[in-house]
Amino acid sequence: MITTLFQILGSLALFLLAMGMMTDGLKNSAGHQLRHILGLWTKTPLKGFGTGVLITGVVQSSSAVTVATIGFVNAGLLNLGQSLGVVFGANVGTTMTGWLVSLVGFGIKIEAFAMPLLAAGVTLKLLGPGHRSKSLGEALAGFALFFLALSLLKDSLGVLTDEFNGEGIVGQGHGLPLYVLFGLLATMLTQSSSAALAIILSAAASNLLTLDNAAAAVIGANLGTTSTAALAVLGATANARRLALGHVIFNLVTGLIALTILPVMLWLVAVLANWFELGAHPAISLALFHTLFNVLGAMIMLPFAPQIAYLLSRMFRGQEEDSAEPRYLDKTLVKTPELAIAAVDQEMKRLIDLTRGLLRGCIDREALKVDQIQLKSEAALSLNTAITDYISKLRSERMQASTVEALARSFVTCRYLTEAIHSAPALLRLRNAGVFPERATLKQELTDYLTKLRQLISADVATPERFAEVEHAYHRLKSSMLKLVIQQALPIENGERSLDDLSAVRRLSDQWYKALNWSPTTESSASATPAVLAEG
Fold it and tell me: Which residues, 6 or more positions from 286, have their beta carbon under 8 angstroms from its beta carbon?
């Protein structure tokens, strides 16, 4: 008994090693082609579905495809709707493993082709002329070990069947949920639904499991694949967490449907197996069942991918997304502007703080790049647009003059802040320009300018004296920069770019200074000063 259990564990370990070699070899061999397909052939959920089926069928790992898709979502290369299609397709593509196990693993003498294939794979990996050939050799060796491990597993489970006198490894009175749990735990422990399927199919072929119990275990193994995606999104973006939840929802809904209509599904499997003359082998029936309920789930869920994506988009809000959403703008106050002003004031405070955080980050955060401020910039612009749209919808009939002026003050301040946000990349480029050797002589003037600008950005109240200090530092820096260009110490093209950024940052400081003149209605006078309302 103990010897048999060790044989089962050893064959399972060999199976996992083989799956890893197959997946890694095929991914490395195909390389950029797979990334190209995943990146470009997913314009719609339906195309994404087809791509998910294709790539998973090639690399033999739905977990690898799901994790790669999560990476694309994290990078912003795929939206949620497209990525859901890929994940749905990956679930169908992973059924190829069941067919390999059932048609090849139990249909022919494995050693007859596995050993020559293993020899060819190892030879190619050791002597292959290039990286792609070596990776292909690794995949072939993994493919051979896959079937050798399957043969060992099948023989070990056959011995176990004899030791249990054919009564099954678990009693028959526990119900289908126990077998679902068995499949789920097998996948979670091995982190491979393929390994779990190999165990289940081999157990069914060895009469350790009846067909309906094995089918329930296959459903559990399908559910277990979501654990890899769940682990992959720890600390990931909100969109990646939404995709992982979409993966869980698909597998859960598909599994519940299959479990509910299990007798009908098994009857249909028997009909199709007879129709296609596949035989009545339990492994083939289970492979067909696995494919059937995943295709059925895809047919049910795929038409609703846009709706599912919308519902998921309301969950796992990221920090930037939360910042972009207005919290106080109540539509019921549109007809009563005097009450709406307080809501606008609250959102204006949030907008100013959000913009200040963006600008401070551009000055203070080391190694920050322009593309890294995109999310925060978009959040600030989104909130800015929400405020101006809300103000434009307020009913102006019988509005008091003080209310009109307060709303005008907020509207114009939003304009100032919009320009400041758009100029943030220029501020970041100017800050980063100080690291270039040809600008070393500008370091003192640049540091002084950024210091004065930091003080202005951090200020809660604008003063003409502080703004004058920023302007004075700007002129000194610009004069020194022009001298370097004229003396050809700084290439003209680089100098022009730096001067353009400097001009944009001056515009930023001007708009920010004007924005700081805004104050909540309750703290300001009834009439706005001309300086505040003047566009500049």
Answer: 98, 102, 200, 201, 204, 211, 214, 215, 218
**C-alpha count within 13 angstroms, C-beta hemisphere, residue 425:** 11
Sign (positive or negative) of CA dihedral 154, 159, 162, 166:
negative
Please report, to the nearest 10 degrees, the dihedral formed by the alpha carbons of residues 68, 73, 74, 76 taken in order.
Answer: 130
Asked if 433 and 445 touch (Cβ cutoff 8 Å), the reply is no
CA 219, CA 286: separation in Å to the nearest integer?
10
Instruction: Kindly report the number of other CB atoms within 10 A of residue 434's CB atom.
Output: 14
Cα atoms in the 13 Å half-sphere on the side-chain side of 71: 9
Cβ atoms of 56 and 94 within 8 Å: the answer is: yes
Structure tokens at 473: 């530092």
The domain boundary residue, chosen from 250, 280, 313: 313
CA angle 391, 397, 401 (to 5 degrees): 75
Instruction: Locate 295 and state its tokens.
Output: 């295709």
User: Residue written as tokens 């099948």?
Assistant: 154
Give me the domain span that covers residue 273.
2-313
Q: Are 460 and 425 a contacting pair, CB within 8 Å?
A: no
Residues 448, 306, single domain; the answer is: no
The reported pLDDT for the residue numbered 458 is: 92
Tell me how far apart the alpha carbons of residues 481 and 459 are, in angstroms, rounded to a whole number.
28
Number of domains in the chain: 2
Whether residues 71 and 154 fall in one domain: yes
Q: Residues 77, 38: contact at Cβ < 8 Å?
A: no
CA-to-CA distance for 60 and 335, rounded, in angstroms? 60
Angle made by CA atoms 521, 526, 531, in degrees to the nearest 5: 90
- 292 with 336, same domain: the answer is no
pLDDT value, residue 522 = 61
Q: How far apart are CA 275 and CA 79, in angstroms?
A: 41
Distance CA 520, CA 285 (A): 71
Q: How far is CA 221 from CA 132, 188, 193, 411, in A?
A: 32, 8, 6, 57
Q: Give the residue ranges of the chain where pLDDT is below 70.
A: 1, 23, 26-27, 29-42, 59-61, 63-64, 67, 71-77, 104-113, 158-174, 228-229, 232-237, 317-322, 332, 395-398, 434-440, 522-536
Q: Which burial class, exposed, middle or buried, applies to 368 when counting CB atoms under 10 A from its CB (0-12, 13-18, 19+)? A: middle
Q: Which residues 6+ apart lie within 8 Å of 437 measured at CB?
A: none
